[in-house]
Amino acid sequence: MPKTEAVLSNNEKHNWQEFCQSHSMSEAEMLRMMIHKVAPEAANACQTKQCRTNKITIRLSTENVQKLDALVQAEGYLSQTSWVTSAVMANLIREPVLTKDEMSELRDSNRQLAAIGRNLNQIARVLNIEFRYSDKITREMIEMLETRINKHTDKVYQLLCQNQRRWGINNE
């Protein structure tokens, strides 16, 4: 069974042992219970997502490693392993695999969409409830929202196209 170790001072170790004994538990049982309480997603990680337990080693020429390093940096990956894993997954599942930066852009995009939605709700409220103030909604305001929506959809489209080109995924 896998094992986790921690280096403790003599005082910490003594206090930990006393704490566990006072609760009639072994040190391992107490630690396991604490992990389940503090981080249940970590305790049940293999049950909630597919665990990556298999390792594959590849050998590349120096030239190809240099090309890989250039791609890793250019595309915003943190390591060669993460890039290679993404490349393999994109080819296995034939769906885009996003970098952390791309995920961040999509989160930002969702925030922008939420803001646009709030603006539209305010406009609808004015138009539907307060007819006498409907003249406050100008054509320019609606065109501004349309421009923001178009910019947003273009940004997301470009991000996904860039990702599909990276991994050679065709729009099917």
Automatic annotation (TrEMBL):
Pfam families: MobC_2. This is Plasmid mobilization relaxosome protein MobC. It comes from Parashewanella curva.
